[in-house]
Amino acid sequence: MTISSGRQPLLDALTHLGAHAGRRASHARGYCAVGHFAPHANAAHFADIAILRDGPLPVTVRFSVGGSDPAISEKTRNLRGMAVRVHGEHESYDMVLVSEPIFYAATPVSYLSYLEAQAADPNTGVPDPQRIAAHEQRHPDTLRLPALLASHAAPSSYACTPYHSTHAFLFTGADGVARPARLMAVPEAGTRYLSAAQERQLPSAFLEREMDERLLQGPIRFQLYAQLPAAGDPLDDPSMPWQGQERVPLGALLITALADTSCDFMTFMPTRLPTGIAASDDPMLRARANVYASASLARRR
Description:
The chain has 301 residues and is an alpha+beta fold. The protein has one domain: Catalase HpII,  Chain A, domain 1 (Beta Barrel). Helices cover 24% and strands 25% of the residues. The protein contains eight helices and ten strands. Strands 1, 2, 3, 4, 5, 6, 7, 8, 9 and 10 form a ten-stranded antiparallel β-sheet that branches. The radius of gyration is 19 Å and the shape is globular.
């Protein structure tokens, strides 16, 4: 299997999984919020960029549930997303983060195979088990994330799960040295998943109300870190968790209010980076950026 551009085949495969006209092909269900980002006092030593010197800066945030169905249950054991745009004076910075430390696949080829294997057989209306088995034999990298998602219940709140970039980026510090890191947003409220009783009893839509009630008590806070790799941690395979434990504090992300639906019309790009942060040579990162750009155009037609 070959992919000429990494763009249209992946978008077509996502669409065939059930994307709805005018809606995102992935993470269709979501809510908008606003707040600000306050850089850590020493963050510019690690990444010498204006956004880490000039804060606090306003942010637009979209919290979401993975999948193409805008009516998907918020209790489903699927990825949660937190897409953040930091509005700098001269540049914007998008952070496209998810609730597990790894992505679905290592490469566009294996991700496309995964999406095709999950598509419903037109004769039965469900995925073909033989096709799934053949895919898993060819691409074992796509087994890691489903196993993580199945290992725990869904988050009890968007405010109670950590978020990860899964991809590595190169951060150039004040000394001119470019250092690889992945991003982590750690919730100050801690990590909490639904109990068995909550999984049974909560309505399928509860996250927006939960956040609204939580915000009555004050801002929702996350600490943003750059996770440094340990020796051997791959810079070009987002399906592999990093073993590196060292973190560099970058600042605090404060969510202060839910917002209108305007962020639904924004396209958060993992490669919309300010000067001083560069994309790594991760083929999946670049493919995702191409897909997001194509999907954004498609849902506006």
